[in-house]
Design brief:
- 41% of the residues lie in helices and 13% in strands.
- It has 103 residues and is of the alpha+beta class.
- The chain is globular, with a radius of gyration of 13 Å.
- The chain has a 3-stranded mixed sheet with strand order 1-3-2.
- It has one domain (13-93).
Length: 103
């Protein structure tokens, strides 16, 4: 299942996303949360903490500035740019996904 949460700024997208992600993970599903927001705070809402959220945001900024290379595969993206959150949610802060693998 793939789920996207979209809406106006300040409408609760981050809070809603974190509740859904943690609930599904607690139910035994493998969950990957991608924070694509221009002001990425999903890590804080998921409970990975301020420092880890900032580390992930810094990695995304380095990618955007060409200081890091984009991950060629889904697994590489998660291992290189991901973080494990509470309840088994895997988090990555991304700016774009080029040529996503099906599934």
């Amino acid at each position: 299942m793939k789920l996207a949460v979209v809406g106006k700024g300040g409408s609760g997208k981050t809070t809603t996303s974190s509740v859904i992600a943690r609930t599904l993970a607690r139910g035994g599903l493998a969950v990957v949360a991608l924070d694509c927001d221009s002001n990425p705070n999903l890590g804080i809402s998921l409970g990975v903490g301020d420092e880890e959220t900032e580390r992930l945001v810094s990695m995304r900024q380095a990618l955007d500035e060409g200081e890091e290379s984009h991950a060629p595969t889904w697994d590489t993206l998660l291992s290189r740019y991901g973080s494990d959150g509470p309840d088994g949610v895997r988090l990555a802060v991304v700016s774009r996904i080029d040529n996503p693998e099906p599934g």
